[in-house]
Amino acid sequence: MQLLEIKEINVAYDDVQVLRGLSFYVEEGEIVSIVGSNGAGKSTLLGAISGLLSLRSGEIHFKGSRVDQIEPQERVKLGIVQIPEGRRLFPHMTVLDHLLVGSFTPRAKAEREKSLEYVLNLFPILKDRKTQLGRTLSGGQQQMLAIARGLMANPEILMLDEPSLGLAPLLVEDVFKTIARIHGEGKSVLLIEQHVHEALTYCSRGYVLENGQFILSGDGKSLLENDYLKKAYLGL
Known about the structure:
By secondary structure, the chain is an alpha/beta fold. Helices cover 39% and strands 27% of the residues.
């Protein structure tokens, strides 16, 4: 079943066209990766799905219903949850308060205790840092907190925007393993990422975005064997 369906969307900043007739889908239980270089339009795409950016044309459907005409907070209530690029934590808020803020919708509040137990088991370090301020965490811990805050919203689809950004290589691998675990436990995931090899290794399907358009798509293994992708993105 298609959980999220994007139909021929166009997005622009003033007169600058960024996304050009993009169409793709995420099925229930899938992890779909969208990879590409800086400026390709990856974050713009997530902003459009979340409702932070308006469409010039096209449609966005979630669980069979059109959602591109409703406000961002209403999309969150439906279960469309984005982990933003750069983590966007509140520097003077504790770890526990970040997690509680994440569960602000009625459907998330109903599952708050269960979700809190889940994320603290997923990220044990956060259990030890519950009273610590977000700004005092390391970069890797801040990314864990950003993901945990998103999970507290009880998402139907978890959308991650460059979760490996600014992390050391060992931490990058940990992030991808965590995403794979979340997916393995039943969450649908849409992953936006510059680390092409890792993103395509862990995904069910992937898309390559260049200049606001998809130039390649397929299962992760096939894309990793594509000659153009190997040359342009993997340096092979």
